Amino acid sequence: MKKVLVFGGSGLVGSRFVKLNANQFDISAPQSQEIDILNKDQILKFTQQSNPDTIINFAAFTQVEDAEAQKRDKEGICYLINAVGAKNVAEVCKEFGKKLIHISTEYVFDGRKENSPYTEEDKPSPINWYGITKLFGEEFVAESGCLSTIVRISMPFSSFYQEKKDIARFFLEELQAGRSIKAIEDQRVTPTVVSDIAAALAHLVEAGSSGLYHVSSTDSVTPLEFAKTIAEVFKLNYSLINSIGLDEYNKEKKAKLLKFSWLNPTKFEREFGEGILHTVEEGLVLFKKEIDEQARNQL
Length: 299
Ligand SMILES: NC(=O)c1ccc[n+]([C@@H]2O[C@H](COP(=O)([O-])OP(=O)(O)OC[C@H]3O[C@@H](n4cnc5c(N)ncnc54)[C@H](OP(=O)(O)O)[C@@H]3O)[C@@H](O)[C@H]2O)c1
Prior knowledge:
By secondary structure, the protein is α/β, with parallel strands linked by helices. It has a single domain (3-297), classed as NAD(P)-binding Rossmann-like Domain (Rossmann fold, 3-Layer(aba) Sandwich). It has eleven helices and twelve strands. It is globular, with a radius of gyration of 19 Å. The site of NADP nicotinamide-adenine-dinucleotide phosphate has 26 residues, from α1, α4 and β4. NADP nicotinamide-adenine-dinucleotide phosphate is lined by residues 7-8, 10-14, 31-32, 36-38, 58-60, 62, 81, 85, 103, 105, 134, 153-156, 164.
C-alpha cells in the first residue's frame, strides 16, 4: 500500500481525497497547526519521519477576492502560501526523492479562449493575484527539479464539505430555501464533482506518473445551465433562477471572474481511460446520490 502525505487535507478537495481513498493508501494528513507549509523545517522533519511515497499539496490560499486586495504583495499571505509554500514542499520532495502532486487551477489562464476549453498546451496568463500566485507555485515546483505532477482543477463542488460553500451547494441551498438566485448566462465553466477529482488523483498516485494534467468535468456549461440542471436533478423550482451577464456580475468584484473558465481533461482520459471523470450533469447526479446517502445514514 502506497504511503501518501497530504497537505491541505482539511480543505474542500483534500478532505474528500483523504476520505475516499482511506482504504487504498496509507494516508497521513497533518493539520496546518502541526505542519505549516511556510515552515520548511517542519515539512522536512515530518517527511523524514513519515517517509511517504508521494506528497499531495492541496494547501492553498483560495479566497480569490481577498487575494486581490493583496495584489503584488509578496509578503502577503496569498503569495506566501500559494507560491512560497509550494516551493518549500517541492524543495523537500527534491531533497528526499519524493514524488509531488501539486494542485493548481484554471485561474492560471486569462479566460479569453472561447472556442474550446484550455488544454495542457495552452500558455498560462493569469489576470488576478490568486491566479498569478498559483502560477508562481507551479513554476517553483517545476524549478525545484523534484519528480512532480501538477494537476489543474476547476470549480470543485462537494456534498461533504460544510465549511465553505461551493457554487453547487450555494445554488442548491438557496433554491431549497425558496430564495431566488442569479446565475451567469454568458460564462463557460467546468464545475467538477469533488469525488471525481479524488478518484482521478488516486489514479495519478498509483501510476506514479509525472507532468501536467487538467482534471475536470468532460463537458462545460454556463452557470445558468448549471443552476437549471441542479433544479432538474433535485426537482426544485426553476422560476427562482434568474440570469445575469458576466460584465454586470463582475462590477461588484475586485477579482474578475474569467469568461472562459474551463479545462479540457482529454489528456487525463487518454492515459487513464474514460469513466473516471464525468459530465457536469452526471457529476450533479452523483452529488445528489451522496447527499441522499448521507441523509439516510443519519436516520
Ligand atoms: N475551491 C476552488 O474553487 C478551487 C478551484 C480550482 C483549484 N483549486 C485548488 O485546489 C486546491 C484545494 O483547494 P480547496 O478549495 O480544497 O482549498 P480550501 O478548502 O481553501 O483548503 C485549503 C487548505 O489549505 C490548508 N492550508 C492553508 N494554509 C496552510 C499552511 N500555511 N500550511 C498548511 N496548510 C495550509 C488549509 O488548512 P487550515 O484549514 O487548517 O488552514 C486547508 O486544509 C488548492 O490548490 C486550490 O488552489 C480550488
